[in-house]
Structure formats: C-alpha cells, structure tokens
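User: My collaborator and I are trying to settle a disagreement about how two of our proteins should look. Neither of us wants to argue from intuition anymore, so we agreed to look at predicted structures for both before our next call. Could you fold the first one, then the second, and keep them clearly separated?

Assistant: That sounds like a sensible way to settle it. I'll keep them separate. The first protein:
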Amino acid sequence: LVPKKIASQEMVDDRLISLPPESRRHTSCGVCLMPFEDASSNDDEPPDEIVAVPCPAQHEFHRACITRWLTQCKHSCPVDHVQLWPEPDEG
C-alpha cells in the first residue's frame, strides 16, 4: 500500500495562519461547509477559531476541521488541492 501523504501535527501548528473576523474573506469552512460563527452571533459559545492555509488563495477553515484533514487525510488544500508542504524527501 502507498502511505497517505499527511502533515504532522507540528507542521500544522506552525504553518496555519490565524485570522481575526475582520480579516476573513469567506463565510464558511471549506471542509465542513458550516458558516463561521463569531462571538456576537452566539454569546453562549466561544467564537470559532478560523485559520487560513498557506496555499496561494489562503482558503479559510475551522482550525479543528483543517487540522483533521491535514493530519489524517491529505497534506493539500481541500479546496484547490494545492500541495501545502513538500514531500519529506523533497526537502
């Protein structure tokens, strides 16, 4: 079997870009497709932590969703399939 091309938790933690609400360009997560929730929309729960991936388009996701995608599924952007990190033997 060919091993999955996934990212390590350390790579994900170091390279995702946290986004404050005023910096967002999208309204929903590219993995789960649920809308982003701010503190103002639901005061009973903390606001969603939104991050962008280092692809040219900087697509936005819930941190939990993209972390699961990158560490368990594939190390590419789930929206445009751009490889986010080189293969381990590529440097």
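The second protein, kept apart from the first:
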Amino acid sequence: KGQITRFVDAENPEVKLDDGQLSSFYKADVQALPEAAKPAALKVGQRVEIIGSVTPGGHKGKKGQITRFVDAENPEVRLDDGNVASFYKVDVQALPEVSAAPTPMPTVAAQAAKSTALKVGQRVEIVGSLTPGGHKGKKGTVTRFVDAENPEVRMDDGLTASFYKADVQALPEAPAPPTPTAPGVPLPPPGAAKPPAALQVGQRVEIVGSLTPGGHKGKKGQIIRFVDAENPEVRLDDGLTASFYKADVQALPEAPKTVALKVGQRVEIVGTLTPGGHKGKKGEITRFVDAENPEVRLDSGQTASFYKADVRSLPEAPKSGALKEGQRVEIVGSLTPGGHKGKRGQITRFVDAENPEVRLDDGTIASFYKVDVQALPEVAKVVELKVGQRVEIIGSVTPGGHKGKK
C-alpha cells in the first residue's frame, strides 16, 4: 500500500509505498483504497498531527500548529520539537479541538473579550505559542497591525513583537460607568467628568497612557499638529515635542473662552505652544500672520508671532471720546515705536481714517496708532474769541515756541 504523489503521464501514477520506496505504476496495477472520513478543513493556528510520509523529513507521528499556507491547500507547520516545515495536505490531519465541556462556563466579560475584534490601544493577553519567543501568558497593548489581522503588541515588560492573531486574546475592557436608569444605581454627582471632546490643534492635553514609548505618562502639553488621521504631536510643558497614539492622550477641560482677538488689543501670553519662553509677558497685537494667529509687540520691545492658543486678551481700558484735531492727548501705549509712552501733546492732523499725528510737548511730531492715544479731559471752554481781545498762548500746535506768551 502507499500514496499517489503525482502522475507520470495522463493516467499512470507514481506511488510512495509505505515501506519508503517510490515507483511508477501502470494504472491497471493500482486500486484505490476507501477514503477515510475527511477531517475538518485546515486553518492557521490549528493543532495537527503528521500522519503521512509523502513529505520528506521523517516527521510522521509528530504534532504541531499550522503557521500559514504555502499555497491554496498545503500548510506550513511549526512542530512541537521547534522545527518548521511545509507539508503536503495529505500528510496532515487536524487534531480534535480541546473540549470546553469540563471547564467552567466563561464569564460574560470573558465571552465579550473573546468576540471583540482587536484594535489599536486594546489590552491583550498572549494565549498561544504559534509566534516564537515564549511570550505565552504575557499581557500588553496593541500598537499597530502588521497586516490585515496580525497585531504588533507592546508588552508590559517593555518588549514589542508581532504576533499571529490566533495567539492574541483581547482582555475585558474596564467596566463602563453605571447608567443612571439602572435600578438602584445613584445618579452621578454634580460636576462628574464628561467624555473628553475630540482632539484638536491647540488643545491642552494630558498623557494618560504608556502605549507611546518615552515615559511621558502624567505629563501635560498642547497639540501642535496631527501626524495622521487621529494621532497627535504634542508639545509638552517640559519643552519636549513627541508624537503620541490617540489612546495615550486625554483632552483637559477648556479654559473659559476669551474675547476675539483684534489688532491693537492688549494681551497676555498664557501658553508655551509658541517657542521662546514668553509665557507671562504682555503686549499688543500688531497684525495677524494668518486667519487666527497674531503677531504681538511685547512690552519688552520684542515682536513675535504666537499661536492663538497661547494668547489671552486683557480687559480693555475704558473708551475715551472720539479723537479730533487740536485735542490734547496722552500716549498710553507702545504699539507705535519710539518710546513715547507717557508723553502728551496735541493732534495736528489724521494720517488716515483713525490714526492721528501728534505734536508732542517736547517738540517731536509723530504718527501714532489710535490705540496708543488717549484723549485728555478738555479744559473749560473760554469765551468766544473776538478781535481786540486779550489772549494767552497755551499750546504748541503752532510752531514758533510762543507757549505762555500773552
């Protein structure tokens, strides 16, 4: 007796006999034996026994697990002795699966974990040994998928390895908070945390997981961009910038929204998303470098562009009356260069619709941004002037240095 290995022509087979010999036979000399009951279809991860010797190597009687298929039907098997070899399908018989009858009924949580599809960020346990390395029994987190179904896992011991899906079992997720409608369950206390909002650029976040290497758990920072559809790059408060898996990042509660920013507004730098160490400084917005991010002239004299998230508007000073020619004013801001803050003078004209030219009391004439100029209280009006009237020169808008003369 033996097994047909191939056909040497249209009808005459080559047979590998059970005594090990390989010979070609005329069809008339060969009679088919009744087929044994067909085993279940083979699949990756299945325990099998080598029952034939069509495949060379002397592996008959050995057991192992199927790791992959080398073609449509012939499997590669990792034998229990450590060898990996490809076998003809006829040499391989599936072993009965271990019955779950003697074991206790699995918990609802375990059943849910088994049925849940794997996903990035999920906690898993290595339950098989199809993947080499001796990791069975270890736990970790899925970091990515190396193909359509096989995950890469960062284990709790720090090692990262790719695993066959059959070796990996999802662990039960942390129980969800009880619903208020469940009988006997109290309502959540007032102010209980709500699910975090979707992440966005400029948002303050905390690193709450360790899926991303680097030991950043517990640190805080701001999102500066997204490296792909969901995973952010974060500038941490310690100055480091790193990309994180979304599962490691939790949005922090937003601060109360401030007034919309505008040119000439007094602001304070409240964040560190923009490099330079300007947090805590104050200044005035000179322009916008794009739709929302301002350039600020700091009170220290520096001018820099800032991310909107770093800038908070300061309360506006009480508005003064509309400016007009001849009005006495004080320079109250430093948006206009020249160091004139604190000086006084009179408006001589307007260089455009709102920004005045001022003749300062020290004789200097300069154009100022409107926001730098504050009208002084008007002096009591004098009697209407007329020809022959005695007068005193009290201003210096008129050139000649006659102030104080009568």
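Some points you might bring to the call about the second protein. Residues 99-115, 176-188, 190-196 have pLDDT under 50 and may be disordered. The radius of gyration is 41 Å.
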